């Protein structure tokens, strides 16, 4: 591959303050991009339909022909091929290209390296070949790539956050209408710290799709008597409670969690806007309880980190973030306590699980962009 490039793109991972597993239920979320990103270097392959892609992180490369795009048996290649396939449904103007990707986003840790990968590629090819696709189309086609080529029936949050975020803000996103509002993150002297369990239990993608089906099952049953209900977004707790004896207990719990979580997002946004950070933290802890007990997507390592944090009054809130079964917790912590907290919790985590914890502070950052 040639070492001089036509275009460089940076595509970030994301955090989500609150609103977990609500996006694919047409609910509300509060994410933003972070200062960890994938860098893409693109070059046009003039007069050719051949594309060459290299991941520095995986020390792996592959090539494909634009006239024969099909799924691969290597999962990471499917993120690339899926985006190219979806672009081909929208335009005939793609040509051959070379692309090198290099990332400092922890992979498979709930910070959405996958959306960063999809969106950065879609954004880059849009620029490189002047496709004139809107940011919203880039978000939506990237989500379709993950559905159709990777097989994870993800919601829209990760791609939306990766592309649309604004420095020092979070996005209150309505995943049904895609209406959104930027909210300043003024939480000084508190900061956002991620603790990576460095475990990723294999269940993740299968269980994710299962949760989606369980929520849909609840909706279908309620819908029979209440035709206005198109998703859990239209179900109140009172209405759900009337179906407690009809619904399978697991389905009931999944629905209950989602309905409560949508309410929590609204309360958390109020707290953030009014600088009531203790209240914000309380809701973040409540989310973890719901994810652990009702939605059942946590794991012992995540629970340990959240429980441990409760002994520190300087930690306002902590919860697992992302799909679950491993990955990171998000913590809102006083800046003066960060160092001590990380030291203590890393020791305790290692003593319990014999696994090294990784800890890093994150800054709310801008979405996918051209690197000058
Ligand atoms: P998350 O999105 O939370 O990081 P996922 O399991 O959804 O976790 O996505 C991780 C997958 O995305 C990886 O297994 C890999 O297939 C792909 N991926 C992410 N970053 C890279 C990279 N730098 N190089 C190649 N593939 C990557
Ligand atoms: Mg992902």
From TrEMBL:
UniProt-listed SUPFAM superfamilies: GHMP Kinase, C-terminal domain (SSF55060), Ribosomal protein S5 domain 2-like (SSF54211)
EC number: 2.7.1.6
InterPro entries, A to Z: Galactokinase, Galactokinase_CS, GalKase_N, GHMP_kinase_C_dom, GHMP_kinase_C_sf, GHMP_kinase_N_dom, Mevalonate/galactokinase, Ribosomal_Su5_D2-typ_SF
One example GO MF annotation: galactokinase activity
Keyword Coiled coil: no
Zinc among keywords: no
Domain of life: Bacteria
Pfam family, one: GHMP_kinases_C
Swiss-Prot/TrEMBL keywords: ATP-binding, Carbohydrate metabolism, Galactose metabolism, Kinase, Nucleotide-binding, Transferase
Segments forming domain GHMP kinase N-terminal: 78-165
PROSITE patterns: GALACTOKINASE
Residues of the GHMP kinase C-terminal domain: 271-349
Domain Galactokinase N-terminal: 7-38
Enzyme class: transferase
NCBIfam families in UniProt: gal_kin (TIGR00131)
Family: Belongs to the GHMP kinase family. GalK subfamily.
Name the record gives this protein: Galactokinase
């Amino acid at each position: 591959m040639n070492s001089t490039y036509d275009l460089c793109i940076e595509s970030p991972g994301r955090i989500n303050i609150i609103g977990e597993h609500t996006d694919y239920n047409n609910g509300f979320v509060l994410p933003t991009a972070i200062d960890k990103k994938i860098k893409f270097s693109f070059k046009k392959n003039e007069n050719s339909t051949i594309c060459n892609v290299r991941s520095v992180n995986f020390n792996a490369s592959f090539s494909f022909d634009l006239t024969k795009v099909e799924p691969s048996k290597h999962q990471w290649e499917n993120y690339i091929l899926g985006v190219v396939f979806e672009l081909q449904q929208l335009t005939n103007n793609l040509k051959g290209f070379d692309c090198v990707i290099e990332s400092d986003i922890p992979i498979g840790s709930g910070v959405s390296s996958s959306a960063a990968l999809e969106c950065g590629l879609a954004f880059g090819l849009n620029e490189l070949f002047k496709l004139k696709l809107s940011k919203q189309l880039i978000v939506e086609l990237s989500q379709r790539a993950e559905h159709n080529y990777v097989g994870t029936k993800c919601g829209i949050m990760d791609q939306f956050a990766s592309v649309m975020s604004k420095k020092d803000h979070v996005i209150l996103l309505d995943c049904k209408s895609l209406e959104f509002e930027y909210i300043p993150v003024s939480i000084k002297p508190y900061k956002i710290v991620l603790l990576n369990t460095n475990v990723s239990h294999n269940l993740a993608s299968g269980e994710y799709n299962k949760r989606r089906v369980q929520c849909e099952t609840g909706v279908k049953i309620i819908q029979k008597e209440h035709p206005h209900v198109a998703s859990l977004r239209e179900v109140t707790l009172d209405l759900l409670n009337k179906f407690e004896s009809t619904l399978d207990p697991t389905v009931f719990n999944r629905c209950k969690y989602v309905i409560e979580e949508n309410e929590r997002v609204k309360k958390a946004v109020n707290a953030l806007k009014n600088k009531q950070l203790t209240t914000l933290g309380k809701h973040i802890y409540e989310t973890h309880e719901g994810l652990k007990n009702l939605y059942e997507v946590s794991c012992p390592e995540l629970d340990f980190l959240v429980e441990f944090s409760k002994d520190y009054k300087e930690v306002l809130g902590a919860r697992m973030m992302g799909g679950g079964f491993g990955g990171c917790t998000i913590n809102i912590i006083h800046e003066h306590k960060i160092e001590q907290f990380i030291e203590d919790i890393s020791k305790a985590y290692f003593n319990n699980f014999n696994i090294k914890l990784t800890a890093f502070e994150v800054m709310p950052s801008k979405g996918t962009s051209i690197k000058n």
